[in-house]
Amino acid sequence: MVHRPRPDRLIAAVRRFGGRGGDERTAAWLGIGLGVSFTVAFVTGLISHFMQHPPGWAVWPSRPVGLYRLTQGLHVIGGLATIPLLLAKLWTVYPKLWQWPPVRSAGHAIERALVFPLVAGALFQLVTGLFNIAYFYPFPFFFPAAHYWTAYIVYGALLIHVANQWAKVRGLWGGKDAGGPATRPMGPSRRGVLATVAGACGLVGLVTVGETFTPLGGLALLAPRRPGVGPQRLPVNKTAAAAGVTRDPAWRLAVTGDVTRELSLSLADLRAMPRHVVRLPIACVEGWSAEATWAGVRLRDVLYAAGVDADARVRVESLEARGRYRTSEVDPPHWHDELTLLALDLNGEPLSLDHGHPCRLIAPDRPGVLQTKWIARLVVHGP
Ligand SMILES: Nc1nc2c(c(=O)[nH]1)N[C@H]1C(S)=C(S)[C@@H](COP(=O)(O)O)O[C@H]1N2
Ligand SMILES: [Mo]
Protein backbone atom coordinates (compact mmCIF):
# COMPACT_ATOMS: atom_id res chain seq x y z
CA MET A 1 0.00 0.00 0.00
CA VAL A 2 1.30 3.45 -0.89
CA HIS A 3 1.23 6.08 1.84
CA ARG A 4 0.16 9.30 0.39
CA PRO A 5 0.46 12.30 2.73
CA ARG A 6 -2.96 13.51 3.70
CA PRO A 7 -3.38 17.23 2.97
CA ASP A 8 -4.49 18.05 6.50
CA ARG A 9 -1.39 16.36 7.93
CA LEU A 10 0.81 18.18 5.51
CA ILE A 11 -0.75 21.49 6.50
CA ALA A 12 -0.34 20.68 10.18
CA ALA A 13 3.33 19.81 9.62
CA VAL A 14 3.95 23.04 7.75
CA ARG A 15 2.29 25.01 10.54
CA ARG A 16 4.36 23.25 13.19
CA PHE A 17 7.52 24.50 11.45
CA GLY A 18 7.01 27.78 13.29
CA GLY A 19 8.33 26.21 16.49
CA ARG A 20 7.09 28.69 19.05
CA GLY A 21 4.52 30.32 16.89
CA GLY A 22 2.04 30.35 19.74
CA ASP A 23 4.40 32.20 22.03
CA GLU A 24 3.68 35.89 21.80
CA ARG A 25 6.39 36.82 24.25
CA THR A 26 9.18 35.26 22.19
CA ALA A 27 7.85 37.12 19.16
CA ALA A 28 7.68 40.34 21.18
CA TRP A 29 11.26 40.05 22.46
CA LEU A 30 12.55 39.38 18.96
CA GLY A 31 10.46 42.31 17.72
CA ILE A 32 11.99 44.64 20.31
CA GLY A 33 15.45 43.56 19.19
CA LEU A 34 14.53 44.17 15.57
CA GLY A 35 13.02 47.56 16.41
CA VAL A 36 16.27 48.64 18.07
CA SER A 37 18.50 47.32 15.30
CA PHE A 38 16.39 48.76 12.46
CA THR A 39 16.37 52.13 14.22
CA VAL A 40 20.17 52.10 14.44
CA ALA A 41 20.41 51.02 10.79
CA PHE A 42 17.95 53.70 9.67
CA VAL A 43 19.68 56.54 11.50
CA THR A 44 23.22 55.51 10.54
CA GLY A 45 22.07 54.91 6.97
CA LEU A 46 20.63 58.43 6.75
CA ILE A 47 23.90 59.81 8.12
CA SER A 48 25.83 57.99 5.42
CA HIS A 49 23.42 59.10 2.70
CA PHE A 50 23.44 62.78 3.65
CA MET A 51 27.18 62.80 4.07
CA GLN A 52 27.53 61.69 0.47
CA HIS A 53 24.72 63.98 -0.72
CA PRO A 54 24.94 67.02 1.56
CA PRO A 55 21.47 68.57 1.66
CA GLY A 56 22.62 72.15 2.22
CA TRP A 57 20.96 72.55 5.63
CA ALA A 58 23.39 70.23 7.34
CA VAL A 59 27.14 70.06 7.12
CA TRP A 60 28.86 67.06 8.59
CA PRO A 61 31.67 68.02 10.99
CA SER A 62 35.26 66.95 10.41
CA ARG A 63 35.62 65.78 14.03
CA PRO A 64 35.65 63.42 15.80
CA VAL A 65 38.01 61.86 13.30
CA GLY A 66 36.47 58.39 13.49
CA LEU A 67 32.77 59.29 13.78
CA TYR A 68 31.86 58.02 10.31
CA ARG A 69 33.89 54.90 10.89
CA LEU A 70 31.73 54.27 13.97
CA THR A 71 28.34 55.07 12.41
CA GLN A 72 29.05 53.05 9.28
CA GLY A 73 30.49 50.17 11.31
CA LEU A 74 27.25 50.12 13.31
CA HIS A 75 25.28 50.19 10.07
CA VAL A 76 27.07 47.35 8.32
CA ILE A 77 28.07 45.08 11.22
CA GLY A 78 24.74 45.74 12.98
CA GLY A 79 22.89 44.94 9.76
CA LEU A 80 24.75 41.67 9.32
CA ALA A 81 24.09 40.66 12.92
CA THR A 82 20.38 41.39 12.38
CA ILE A 83 20.03 38.64 9.78
CA PRO A 84 19.65 35.78 12.33
CA LEU A 85 17.28 37.96 14.36
CA LEU A 86 14.99 38.59 11.40
CA LEU A 87 15.00 34.92 10.38
CA ALA A 88 14.10 33.92 13.94
CA LYS A 89 11.26 36.43 14.06
CA LEU A 90 9.84 35.17 10.76
CA TRP A 91 10.08 31.60 12.01
CA THR A 92 8.24 32.55 15.20
CA VAL A 93 5.38 34.46 13.61
CA TYR A 94 5.16 32.30 10.52
CA PRO A 95 2.11 30.25 11.72
CA LYS A 96 0.11 33.50 11.79
CA LEU A 97 -0.04 33.25 8.01
CA TRP A 98 -2.75 30.63 8.56
CA GLN A 99 -4.69 32.46 11.28
CA TRP A 100 -8.43 31.99 11.06
CA PRO A 101 -10.49 33.94 10.17
CA PRO A 102 -7.88 35.61 7.95
CA VAL A 103 -9.44 39.02 8.46
CA ARG A 104 -11.44 40.05 11.51
CA SER A 105 -12.07 43.71 10.77
CA ALA A 106 -11.04 46.55 8.48
CA GLY A 107 -8.30 47.56 10.93
CA HIS A 108 -7.07 44.00 11.10
CA ALA A 109 -7.01 43.81 7.29
CA ILE A 110 -4.79 46.92 7.11
CA GLU A 111 -2.57 45.56 9.87
CA ARG A 112 -2.09 42.31 7.95
CA ALA A 113 -1.59 44.05 4.59
CA LEU A 114 1.21 46.14 6.12
CA VAL A 115 3.08 43.01 7.10
CA PHE A 116 3.95 42.46 3.45
CA PRO A 117 6.03 45.65 2.87
CA LEU A 118 7.52 45.18 6.33
CA VAL A 119 8.70 41.61 5.77
CA ALA A 120 9.57 41.93 2.08
CA GLY A 121 11.30 45.28 2.63
CA ALA A 122 13.29 44.07 5.64
CA LEU A 123 14.47 40.99 3.73
CA PHE A 124 15.32 43.17 0.73
CA GLN A 125 17.44 45.53 2.86
CA LEU A 126 19.40 42.77 4.55
CA VAL A 127 19.95 40.69 1.41
CA THR A 128 20.96 43.58 -0.88
CA GLY A 129 23.16 45.02 1.87
CA LEU A 130 24.89 41.67 2.26
CA PHE A 131 25.41 41.36 -1.51
CA ASN A 132 26.74 44.90 -1.68
CA ILE A 133 29.48 44.40 0.89
CA ALA A 134 30.38 41.14 -0.88
CA TYR A 135 30.68 43.11 -4.17
CA PHE A 136 28.07 40.82 -5.72
CA TYR A 137 25.53 42.63 -7.90
CA PRO A 138 23.12 40.15 -9.46
CA PHE A 139 20.32 42.76 -9.45
CA PRO A 140 19.52 45.24 -12.23
CA PHE A 141 19.06 48.33 -10.02
CA PHE A 142 21.58 50.75 -8.48
CA PHE A 143 22.13 49.53 -4.95
CA PRO A 144 22.51 52.83 -3.00
CA ALA A 145 19.30 54.34 -4.43
CA ALA A 146 17.24 51.17 -3.93
CA HIS A 147 18.59 50.63 -0.41
CA TYR A 148 17.96 54.27 0.52
CA TRP A 149 14.35 54.51 -0.68
CA THR A 150 13.36 51.08 0.61
CA ALA A 151 14.58 52.18 4.05
CA TYR A 152 11.71 54.69 4.28
CA ILE A 153 9.15 52.04 3.32
CA VAL A 154 10.48 49.54 5.84
CA TYR A 155 10.89 52.01 8.67
CA GLY A 156 7.47 53.57 8.02
CA ALA A 157 5.83 50.14 8.01
CA LEU A 158 7.78 49.26 11.16
CA LEU A 159 6.53 52.34 13.03
CA ILE A 160 2.92 51.53 12.14
CA HIS A 161 3.47 47.90 13.10
CA VAL A 162 4.89 48.92 16.48
CA ALA A 163 1.96 51.30 17.07
CA ASN A 164 -0.46 48.47 16.25
CA GLN A 165 1.28 45.96 18.48
CA TRP A 166 1.97 48.30 21.37
CA ALA A 167 -1.17 47.62 23.40
CA LYS A 168 -0.88 43.90 22.87
CA VAL A 169 2.77 43.78 23.86
CA ARG A 170 2.14 45.86 26.99
CA GLY A 171 -0.58 43.39 27.90
CA LEU A 172 1.97 40.58 27.75
CA TRP A 173 3.97 42.13 30.58
CA GLY A 174 1.09 43.71 32.45
CA GLY A 175 0.01 40.47 34.17
CA LYS A 176 -3.05 40.33 31.95
CA ASP A 177 -3.83 37.28 29.94
CA ALA A 178 -2.13 37.55 26.59
CA GLY A 179 -5.40 36.64 24.95
CA GLY A 180 -3.99 33.66 23.13
CA PRO A 181 -5.11 30.07 23.52
CA ALA A 182 -3.91 28.43 26.71
CA THR A 183 -2.07 25.66 24.87
CA ARG A 184 1.64 25.39 25.42
CA PRO A 185 3.39 25.74 22.10
CA MET A 186 5.63 22.94 21.00
CA GLY A 187 9.34 23.15 20.48
CA PRO A 188 12.19 24.60 22.51
CA SER A 189 11.75 26.90 25.50
CA ARG A 190 11.56 30.67 25.15
CA ARG A 191 14.88 31.08 26.93
CA GLY A 192 16.42 28.52 24.60
CA VAL A 193 15.17 30.30 21.50
CA LEU A 194 16.23 33.75 22.68
CA ALA A 195 19.66 32.55 23.82
CA THR A 196 20.26 30.79 20.49
CA VAL A 197 19.27 33.86 18.50
CA ALA A 198 21.41 36.16 20.64
CA GLY A 199 24.32 33.75 20.23
CA ALA A 200 23.90 33.63 16.44
CA CYS A 201 23.75 37.44 16.17
CA GLY A 202 26.77 37.78 18.45
CA LEU A 203 28.74 35.26 16.41
CA VAL A 204 28.02 37.04 13.11
CA GLY A 205 29.12 40.32 14.71
CA LEU A 206 32.26 38.75 16.17
CA VAL A 207 33.54 37.31 12.87
CA THR A 208 32.92 40.55 10.94
CA VAL A 209 33.54 43.46 13.32
CA GLY A 210 37.32 43.09 12.89
CA GLU A 211 37.05 44.65 9.43
CA THR A 212 36.57 48.02 11.11
CA PHE A 213 37.60 47.41 14.75
CA THR A 214 41.25 46.58 14.19
CA PRO A 215 41.97 44.85 17.55
CA LEU A 216 39.57 42.08 16.45
CA GLY A 217 41.01 41.99 12.91
CA GLY A 218 42.24 38.42 13.42
CA LEU A 219 38.66 37.23 13.95
CA ALA A 220 37.26 38.87 10.80
CA LEU A 221 36.87 35.53 9.06
CA LEU A 222 33.75 36.49 7.13
CA ALA A 223 34.77 40.04 6.22
CA PRO A 224 35.47 40.69 2.54
CA ARG A 225 38.21 43.27 3.33
CA ARG A 226 40.71 43.16 6.14
CA PRO A 227 42.83 45.92 7.61
CA GLY A 228 46.49 45.49 6.79
CA VAL A 229 45.86 43.31 3.71
CA GLY A 230 46.72 45.00 0.40
CA PRO A 231 49.50 47.05 -1.20
CA GLN A 232 51.28 49.22 1.39
CA ARG A 233 49.30 47.28 4.03
CA LEU A 234 46.00 48.91 3.09
CA PRO A 235 43.06 47.37 1.17
CA VAL A 236 42.27 48.59 -2.34
CA ASN A 237 38.71 48.78 -3.66
CA LYS A 238 39.32 50.25 -7.09
CA THR A 239 42.66 49.51 -8.73
CA ALA A 240 44.34 51.91 -11.13
CA ALA A 241 43.86 49.35 -13.88
CA ALA A 242 40.11 49.21 -13.21
CA ALA A 243 39.98 53.00 -13.22
CA GLY A 244 42.03 53.25 -16.43
CA VAL A 245 44.71 55.38 -14.75
CA THR A 246 48.41 55.12 -15.61
CA ARG A 247 51.53 56.97 -14.42
CA ASP A 248 52.03 60.33 -16.11
CA PRO A 249 55.48 61.93 -15.65
CA ALA A 250 54.07 65.28 -16.87
CA TRP A 251 51.34 65.27 -14.19
CA ARG A 252 50.41 68.63 -12.65
CA LEU A 253 47.75 69.62 -10.16
CA ALA A 254 45.47 72.39 -11.46
CA VAL A 255 43.71 74.71 -9.00
CA THR A 256 40.97 76.69 -10.78
CA GLY A 257 37.50 78.20 -10.37
CA ASP A 258 36.76 80.97 -7.84
CA VAL A 259 40.40 81.70 -7.04
CA THR A 260 42.45 84.88 -7.23
CA ARG A 261 45.44 82.99 -8.72
CA GLU A 262 45.12 79.85 -10.80
CA LEU A 263 47.81 77.33 -9.92
CA SER A 264 49.46 74.50 -11.78
CA LEU A 265 51.68 72.52 -9.41
CA SER A 266 54.11 69.74 -10.20
CA LEU A 267 54.82 66.92 -7.78
CA ALA A 268 58.11 68.67 -6.92
CA ASP A 269 56.18 71.90 -6.16
CA LEU A 270 53.93 69.99 -3.77
CA ARG A 271 56.91 68.25 -2.14
CA ALA A 272 58.52 71.66 -1.59
CA MET A 273 55.53 72.86 0.46
CA PRO A 274 55.27 72.29 4.26
CA ARG A 275 54.88 68.56 4.83
CA HIS A 276 52.50 67.14 7.42
CA VAL A 277 52.02 63.62 8.72
CA VAL A 278 48.61 62.41 9.91
CA ARG A 279 47.21 59.11 11.09
CA LEU A 280 43.73 58.70 9.59
CA PRO A 281 41.43 55.84 8.59
CA ILE A 282 39.84 55.12 5.25
CA ALA A 283 36.26 54.28 6.28
CA CYS A 284 34.47 52.69 3.35
CA VAL A 285 30.68 52.78 3.12
CA GLU A 286 30.87 49.02 2.79
CA GLY A 287 31.85 48.76 6.42
CA TRP A 288 35.59 48.07 6.36
CA SER A 289 37.98 50.66 7.59
CA ALA A 290 41.68 50.82 8.14
CA GLU A 291 44.08 53.38 9.58
CA ALA A 292 47.24 54.44 7.86
CA THR A 293 49.96 57.05 8.17
CA TRP A 294 49.68 59.65 5.44
CA ALA A 295 52.05 62.48 4.56
CA GLY A 296 51.58 65.39 2.19
CA VAL A 297 50.46 68.99 2.07
CA ARG A 298 47.44 70.50 3.76
CA LEU A 299 44.59 71.12 1.37
CA ARG A 300 44.05 74.51 2.99
CA ASP A 301 47.66 75.55 2.32
CA VAL A 302 47.14 74.92 -1.40
CA LEU A 303 43.78 76.73 -1.39
CA TYR A 304 45.17 79.73 0.51
CA ALA A 305 48.02 79.89 -1.99
CA ALA A 306 45.42 80.15 -4.77
CA GLY A 307 43.37 82.72 -2.82
CA VAL A 308 39.90 81.42 -1.91
CA ASP A 309 37.00 82.63 0.24
CA ALA A 310 36.68 81.01 3.65
CA ASP A 311 33.22 79.64 2.82
CA ALA A 312 34.13 78.30 -0.62
CA ARG A 313 33.57 74.67 -1.57
CA VAL A 314 36.02 72.59 -3.55
CA ARG A 315 35.37 69.89 -6.13
CA VAL A 316 38.20 67.39 -6.28
CA GLU A 317 38.49 65.79 -9.72
CA SER A 318 40.35 62.63 -10.55
CA LEU A 319 42.42 61.58 -13.55
CA GLU A 320 39.90 58.75 -13.79
CA ALA A 321 37.86 59.55 -16.91
CA ARG A 322 34.67 57.74 -15.98
CA GLY A 323 33.29 56.30 -12.80
CA ARG A 324 30.81 57.39 -10.20
CA TYR A 325 33.47 58.25 -7.63
CA ARG A 326 35.83 60.24 -9.82
CA THR A 327 34.94 63.54 -8.06
CA SER A 328 34.01 64.60 -4.55
CA GLU A 329 33.03 67.83 -2.84
CA VAL A 330 34.94 69.21 0.13
CA ASP A 331 32.96 71.56 2.38
CA PRO A 332 34.57 74.29 4.50
CA PRO A 333 34.74 72.30 7.78
CA HIS A 334 36.73 69.64 5.98
CA TRP A 335 39.12 71.76 3.96
CA HIS A 336 39.83 74.05 6.91
CA ASP A 337 40.76 71.05 9.03
CA GLU A 338 44.51 70.77 9.55
CA LEU A 339 44.31 66.99 9.15
CA THR A 340 42.92 67.20 5.60
CA LEU A 341 45.79 66.45 3.24
CA LEU A 342 46.63 66.05 -0.36
CA ALA A 343 48.52 62.90 0.48
CA LEU A 344 51.71 62.02 -1.38
CA ASP A 345 53.01 59.28 0.92
CA LEU A 346 51.39 56.29 2.58
CA ASN A 347 52.96 54.35 5.46
CA GLY A 348 56.35 55.92 4.81
CA GLU A 349 56.55 55.37 1.04
CA PRO A 350 55.32 57.36 -1.96
CA LEU A 351 51.70 56.44 -2.76
CA SER A 352 51.45 53.41 -4.99
CA LEU A 353 49.45 53.83 -8.17
CA ASP A 354 46.58 51.76 -6.72
CA HIS A 355 46.41 54.06 -3.71
CA GLY A 356 46.12 57.20 -5.82
CA HIS A 357 49.61 58.21 -7.00
CA PRO A 358 50.62 60.97 -7.47
CA CYS A 359 48.19 62.55 -5.03
CA ARG A 360 45.01 61.63 -3.18
CA LEU A 361 42.68 63.27 -0.70
CA ILE A 362 42.62 62.08 2.89
CA ALA A 363 40.35 63.86 5.37
CA PRO A 364 39.04 63.08 8.86
CA ASP A 365 35.47 61.83 9.41
CA ARG A 366 34.55 61.31 5.78
CA PRO A 367 33.28 58.24 3.87
CA GLY A 368 35.89 56.39 1.80
CA VAL A 369 34.08 57.16 -1.45
CA LEU A 370 34.87 60.83 -0.88
CA GLN A 371 38.62 60.24 -0.41
CA THR A 372 39.32 60.81 -4.09
CA LYS A 373 42.39 59.16 -5.67
CA TRP A 374 44.56 60.25 -8.62
CA ILE A 375 43.71 63.94 -8.18
CA ALA A 376 44.09 66.08 -11.31
CA ARG A 377 42.16 69.28 -10.48
CA LEU A 378 40.74 71.27 -7.60
CA VAL A 379 37.81 73.39 -8.77
CA VAL A 380 36.82 76.06 -6.24
CA HIS A 381 33.24 77.30 -6.30
CA GLY A 382 30.82 79.32 -4.23
CA PRO A 383 28.99 78.06 -1.12
N1 LIG B 1 39.13 58.37 -8.23
C1 LIG B 1 38.61 57.49 -7.36
N2 LIG B 1 38.84 57.64 -6.05
C2 LIG B 1 38.32 56.75 -5.15
C3 LIG B 1 37.52 55.68 -5.57
C4 LIG B 1 37.26 55.56 -6.94
O1 LIG B 1 36.56 54.65 -7.39
N3 LIG B 1 37.83 56.47 -7.81
N4 LIG B 1 37.02 54.79 -4.64
C5 LIG B 1 36.84 55.31 -3.30
C6 LIG B 1 36.44 54.34 -2.30
S1 LIG B 1 34.93 53.59 -2.51
C7 LIG B 1 37.16 54.12 -1.17
S2 LIG B 1 36.58 53.17 0.10
C8 LIG B 1 38.47 54.76 -1.00
C9 LIG B 1 39.49 53.74 -0.64
O2 LIG B 1 39.49 52.85 -1.66
P1 LIG B 1 40.75 52.12 -2.15
O3 LIG B 1 40.83 50.98 -1.23
O4 LIG B 1 40.39 51.72 -3.55
O5 LIG B 1 41.91 53.04 -2.07
O6 LIG B 1 38.92 55.40 -2.17
C10 LIG B 1 37.97 56.17 -2.79
N5 LIG B 1 38.59 56.94 -3.84
MO1 LIG C 1 34.31 52.68 -0.49
From TrEMBL:
InterPro entries: Di-haem_cyt_TM, Mopterin_OxRdtase_euk, OxRdtase_Mopterin-bd_dom, OxRdtase_Mopterin-bd_sf. It comes from Actinoallomurus vinaceus. Residues 249-380 form the Oxidoreductase molybdopterin-binding domain. Keywords: Membrane, Transmembrane, Transmembrane helix. This is Molybdopterin-dependent oxidoreductase. It comes from the Bacteria. The chain crosses the membrane at residues 26-50, 70-92, 113-137, 149-167.
